[in-house]
Write a structure and sequence with these properties.
heterodimer; A: 127 residues; mainly alpha; 55% helix; 11% strand; B: four-stranded mixed sheet; 14 strands; elongated
Chain lengths: 127, 418
């Protein structure tokens, strides 16, 4: 049961930029995001998620990847409502289940901070 | 119907109270087991306590000459309550069906899949569900090949903790609460609080068994993102990552903070005091007592007190039934028959009890026919004069007595000449 068309805040933020600029590299996207600007790795992670969800794709251009949206903005808005409903009913099995991880609605900034802190902690532990 | 509404109201209040205390004082503390029991207790209270109402006794002393006025009841006759009840039941049914459907889906997957028995639980690897979770004794692992072994191990340990600690019981009870109080947002918040606490408990168990917090944290992130943001030997998933990670790093909470739950007994006491029901006892000179005196309907002046009390010869009683819109039913009841002992100074009197639906219009009085003639009230009739009493209501009343009989008719025949 794959989740349908539900984007977290971070993913939506990145998609907004992609819809605006049409296509771009991680650097291009980063420029369009507001301060505090997240790390490039964070944006790359979000783009990977978007690709997994089928919202974007990339083409290799030399050493960098150029990302472009697959799903258009209007199509997404429409999908959202039906996606919400479908998820609601698909999740009927979840009433007594304890999940290991449910998707969290981070913003790009929150995600960025989270990833950074975890990286730092891992470094500390390795020492 | 009123009792249902009252029950739901009280139940919702209790839920809201417990949740507020948890939210304000307990949710950031690290005594997770205590919190779990607190939340469970709140569930039990919310479901069970509303059945008990505290009653206190009120004695009213009557001089015997005048029947004190009944407290006025403000009942509105409308169909809104009925609509509300219908909506409520519809909501309950909807949720029940959904839950049962979910259980059936689980059962189907369990039947079709291979399970491995590990450490007291059954492990099922399946791609049907997108994420990993546990229910009852089953762990459903949905890990893609990218997930490394240490990560899988930590997921397993986490879910095993859920199973060992039997978290599904809490979730079951919470679901019951949510179905009963589906309209109450606090019930759903309560469910979220219980889940959150479960995750803290499971995380705690994994860390205690020796896993590295940083790796666990990285794994949580990986799983919740659905992509290996940390390409390490172990990757994890995370529920509400920020909170869980912060919780793992917290210093242990002082035990003393648990004492904030002493707020509960006063809150519950206040609650009971507010909903307490007065039990009124009407005490006449001489010691006779009527409990719930306003089951009979004034206005009525008792006849002058005679020296000798005469036992009531004949009584007819018909049960009161609530009819949809028209004639309320009337019962002739003789309270003397229900209040032993009967003092000598107290004359049994006749009173008319009408059903609550009668309160709709302006206190409609039934038509009273005494020996064929209409009389206005029962004043001056003593039961020993009465030979027979007959009660008509509904169609038969209207057909015999016309419009006057729309509130019911009481026909009385007396013994002697009148």
């Amino acid at each position: 049961m794959k989740k349908i068309a539900q984007l977290t805040k971070a993913e939506e933020q990145v998609m907004q930029v992609l819809w605006n600029i049409g296509k771009g590299t991680v650097q291009d996207i980063r420029e369009k995001l507001e301060a505090p600007k997240p790390a490039r790795t964070t944006i790359a992670t979000v783009l990977t998620i978007l690709e997994n969800k089928g919202f974007a794709r990339h083409k290799s251009s030399g050493r960098t990847n150029v990302y472009a949206p697959i799903v258009g903005k209007e199509a997404y808005s429409k999908k959202q409502l039906s996606g919400l409903l479908k998820n609601y009913f698909n999740n009927s099995f979840a009433s007594m289940a304890s999940f290991f991880a449910t998707e969290n609605n981070y913003t790009v900034e929150e995600l960025d901070r989270l990833l950074q802190e975890t990286r730092d902690e891992l470094k500390k532990e390795k020492k | 119907m009123e009792t249902l509404v009252l029950y739901l109201f009280k139940s919702s209040l209790i839920t809201a109270t417990f949740w507020s205390i948890y939210w304000c004082f307990l949710r950031n503390e690290t005594f997770f087991r205590f919190n779990r029991y607190f939340l469970l207790a709140g569930l039990a209270c919310a479901l069970v306590f509303p059945f008990y109402t505290y009653s206190y006794r009120v004695d009213i002393f009557s001089s015997g000459n005048r029947f004190p006025d009944a407290p006025t009841e403000n009942t509105e006759g409308s169909s809104w309550p009925l609509l509300g009840i219908f909506l409520y039941i519809a909501g309950v049914c909807f949720l029940l069906i959904r839950r049962l459907n979910g259980l059936m889906i689980l059962r189907r997957v369990i039947r079709r899949s291979e399970s491995v028995s590990v450490g007291g639980c059954n492990l099922i690897n399946t791609e049907v569900f997108k994420s990993s979770f546990s229910v009852f004794r089953y762990i459903f692992m949905s890990v893609d090949p990218q997930t490394s072994e240490p990560e899988q191990k930590m997921i397993f340990q986490h879910e095993l903790a859920h199973i060992t600690q039997r978290h599904w019981i809490d979730l079951f009870a919470a679901q019951v609460l949510c179905i009963v109080q589906w309209f109450n947002p606090f019930a759903w918040l309560y469910l979220t609080a219980i889940r959150q606490n479960h995750e803290y408990l499971a995380d705690d168990a994994v860390l205690r068994s020796g896993s590295s917090p940083a790796l666990y944290r990285a794994a949580l992130i990986n799983q919740s993102l659905g992509t290996p943001a940390f390409s390490f030997a172990s990757s994890f998933s995370q529920v509400d990552g920020l909170k869980r990670i912060n919780m793992m790093r917290k210093p242990v909470s002082a035990s003393a903070r648990k004492w904030t739950v002493v707020l509960i007994p006063p809150a519950l006491t206040l609650f009971y005091w507010v909903f307490a029901k007065p039990e009124v006892h009407l005490i006449f000179p001489g010691g006779a007592e009527i409990s719930h005196p306003w089951a009979v309907v004034p206005p009525y002046d008792p006849p002058p007190i005679k020296d000798e009390a005469v036992p009531v010869g004949q009584q007819q009683r018909k049960p009161a039934k609530a009819e949809p819109s028209h004639a309320p039913s009337a019962t002739a009841s003789l309270p003397a028959a229900t209040t032993p002992p009967k003092p000598k100074s107290m004359e049994p009197f006749v009173a008319v009890k009408t059903s609550p639906a009668a309160a709709n219009t302006d206190r409609p009085q039934p038509l009273i026919i005494l020996d064929g003639a209409e009389i206005k009230s029962l004043n001056g009739i003593s039961p020993d004069d009465i030979k027979s009493v007959n009660v008509l209501k509904g169609e038969s009343a209207i057909s015999t007595y016309g419009d006057r009989g729309k509130n019911g008719v009481i026909t009385i025949s007396t013994r002697g000449s009148h």
